[in-house]
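User: If only I could read backbone structure tokens as easily as an amino acid sequence. Those tokens are not coordinates but codes from a learned vocabulary of shapes. Could you go through the record with me and say what the backbone is doing? Here is the record:
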Amino acid sequence: MEQKKERQKELETARTHVKVYLSPEEKAVIKKKADSFGMTISNYLKTVGCGYEPLDKLSFQKVDDLLKVAGTVGKFTGMLKIFLREQNTHRIETSRKQIEKDYREAVKCVADIKAKVKHVCEFDEPED
């Protein structure tokens, strides 16, 4: 009984090979589409054949860019937290000019982050 379950599990996870005959032109079209998504022909055909929409390789780049922006936001908020804690615990005396300068730098940093997020979130129109 145990062997039957193991064999069934093997059959469920086994891969099979599918042979498709294409003209050179058809293969070139499929290869071009697969390349545009940063995929192999096999992976592209499997994705499309199973009814999934392939993700554009630019989507992966945008996700990577957003992760970098998130890192920048994390660094900024960490520095702000440290600054505020030092202000509170050590009662650091700072001049009004220094506080205004720090505030302007913080506002500039937030504006830069907003610009990066806006840029990353802009999607290009797909080419036909």
Observations:
- Residues 57-89 form the longest helix (33 residues).
- The CA atoms of residues 67 and 73 lie 10 Å apart.
